[in-house]
Amino acid sequence: MEQDAIGELKTEYINRLLVENKRADGRAPDEVRPITVETGLVTSAAGSARVKWGDTDVMVGVMIETGTPFPDTPDKGVLVTNAELIPMASPYFESGPPRPESIELARVVDRGIREAKTIDLSKLCITPKEKVYICYIDIHVLDFGGNLFDPCSLGAMMALNTAHVPAKRHGLGEDYKLKIDHFPISCTTAKIHNGLLVDPGLDEERVAEARLTVTTDENGDVRAMQKGLSGKLTFEQVKTAIQTSQRVGRELRSKFKLGA
Amino acid sequence: MGGTPSTHKMILENGKRFDGRALDQLRPISIQAGVLKRADGSAYVEWGENKVLAAVYGPREVHPRHMQNPARAIVQARYNMASFSVSERKRPGPDRRSQELTKIISEALEAVVFVEQYPRTTVDVYMEVLQADAGTRCAGLTAASVALADAGIPMRDLVPAVASGKVEGRVVCDLNREEDNCGEADLPMAILPRTGEFLLLQMDGHLTYDELMQAMEYNFKALKVIYELQKEALRKKYATAQLEEPVVLPKPEEAPAAEPAHGEFHEGAGVPPEEGAHEPEEPPLDGPEDHEGGA
Questions:
Q1: Taking chain A, what is the end-to-end CA distance rounded to the nearest angstrom?
Q2: Do B199 and A78 touch (CB under 8 A)?
Q3: What is the pLDDT of residue B9?
Q4: Could you state, in order of their start, the residue ranges of all structural domains in chain B?
Q5: Cβ-defined contact of A222 to B104 (cutoff 8 Å)
Q6: What is the arithmetic mean of pLDDT over B270-288?
Q7: Which of A32, A163, B107, B192 has its CB surrounded by the most CB atoms within 10 Å?
Q8: Average pLDDT, chain B
Q9: What are phi and psi of B104, to 5 degrees?
Q10: pLDDT higher than 70, residue B217
């Protein structure tokens, strides 16, 4: 992305700092940025969460509606994840049809939630083959400060965790809390020339050669992974990223009382 | 993963898989280089029931021009599934899944091409899945790097790709479609063989850390085999061409015959299963490769 002189300088600066185990914002190489989460801000949604993760700010809304199931899963509800990189969030985001970046983001968040069996989709079935609940996870990136995968995954998790199924609106009895069975957390590690940086900030992400997002569940088992960018990762670096994700997952689950 | 229950056991009593393979065994793979005439480079891969074609154009001018990079070439891959490649017709055109695969495959290939040698150009790599049987992204990427080499694009190495996964609680190498549909995990991986570094890595499903390491080990082992098949395919095409160079000068009227085989890939002709090919028979299978789940 950055071929200009400023990019070169930043790359050199970030690399030079890493030799001394330092980062531009004062973090340790394996430290994530400060995170705050507010839930239930949007009452029109079934569940919502606003995640401020360093300079990145995302809003996730969960909407639960009814519809027809997929023909190959007639007795299961449907989970749909969508991410909008709206123009307000960055000078580089433009309106228009989804770009590969936002598709990848949505699909990686979706994969973590889906593969961890976070919600039991068979419980979202109303009438097999005919009517099921469709659970939409809509992600709006409000301020792009680097590393969208992890804030968006956490936002999706927190929004689901506080969501209520609006049964009453559909004439299906009283509203009830959406049951959450598992608590996946994703953690992204970026590789730059001189080493690994966990949870890359905006500048770090711009100079990153490769990144690896690893989603683990409450047992530390791996549920999803995605490598990105055109750099290479060694086997050792992959193992380190997985172990880091296991640790960060533990920390965040305890911080936000997920599964406790 | 699909998690759709199967009608029979996927791992048999004797520790073999339903199609007769051992846990760490690949499906039969054949690779052919240079199968298309117009493209600058091409390759055709048959991998189990997968049939995938890759073509390379470039380095050539970038359109639209604002995508040009003044410092280097860009690599633009396109992964596409033919509407007839799965038993239920797939709506033509890029869906979200193929857009994601297009992105990560482009990134993986960009890592091996010496892009700095061709500023302001694009290297276009087209992958068409003609028949799908799980593992199409890996078959596509495997074909793509052979096609790049066939096009004479300077590159660091070929890129073999493979996916291991988990079926009925066992880690297995190179899932076929039936295993993929009822599988519990999938781990597609592509490496730079020279260094063992990862160029593509994805995972979905449920693996403990130890299972993940086992799946990676199976992948590393299988990638070695695939890498040899890739080199063999290139050798086959270009060694023939070399032999046909008149070592002993022919008389002028005896024009050297046979062109280097621009083999057909259609009509199920392909190439006969060859070296190291394993023998299992695939049962006919149905269903889409990935459960999109509307995501």
A1: 42
A2: no
A3: 87
A4: 29-242
A5: no
A6: 43
A7: A163
A8: 84
A9: -75, -30
A10: yes
Q: Per the CB < 8 Å rule, is A115 touching B205?
A: yes
Given CA atoms A123, A129, A132, A135 in this order, what sign does their dihedral have? positive
In the block, tokens 């199967």 appear at: B6
Tokens of A239: 């193992």
pLDDT band at B249 (very low <50, low <70, confident <90, very high): low
Tokens of B116: 């700095």
Per-residue pLDDT, A193:
83
Compare all CA atoms of chain B with the CA of A245 and give the residue at the minimum distance. B209
Q: What share of chain A is helix, strand, coil (3-state, %, to 5)?
A: 30, 30, 40
Count up the domains in chain A and report the number.
1
Minimum-distance CB partner of A103 among B99, B201, B288: B99
Of B4, B96, B203, the CB nearest to A222: B203
Mean pLDDT of A85-100: 80
- List beta partners, residue B123: B75
Contacts of A101 in chain B (CB under 8 A): 103
In a domain, A189, yes or no: yes
Helices B96-110 & A100-115 angle (0-180, nearest 10): 110
pLDDT at B287: 41
CA distance B278 to B131: 20
Q: DSSP letters of B12-61?
A: -TTS-BTTS--TTPPPPEEEEE---SSSSEEEEEEETTEEEEEEEEEEEE
pLDDT above 60: residue B221: yes
Would you say B287 and B1 are in contact if contact means Cβ atoms under 8 Å apart? no
Whether residue A167 lies inside any domain: the answer is yes
Q: What is the mean pLDDT of chain A?
A: 91
CB contact under 8 A, B195 and A111: no
Which residue, among B156, B201, B216, would best test binding to A if mutated, counting the most A CBs under 10 Å from its CB? B201
Among the partner-chain residues B96, B201, B293, the one whose CB lies closest to the CB of A114 is B293
The CATH number that applies at residue A130 is 3.30.230.70
Out of B96, B106, B197, closest to residue A107 by CB: B96
Residues 166-205 of B with CB under 8 A from A: 187, 192, 195-205
pLDDT-derived band at A194 (thresholds 50, 70, 90) equals confident
Q: How many CA atoms lie within 13 A of B41 on its CB side?
A: 24
How far apart are the CA of B186 and the nearest CA of chain A, in angstroms? 9
Q: Measure Cα distances from B56 to A17, B8, B213 in Å.
A: 41, 42, 34
Domain membership of residue A96 (yes or no) is yes
Nearest to A80 among B102, B199, B294 (CB): B294
Cis peptide before B64 (omega within 30 of 0): yes
Distance from CA of B271 to the nearest CA of A (A): 32
Whether A72 sits inside 8 A of B287 (CB atoms) is: yes
Element (H, E) at A65: strand A56-67
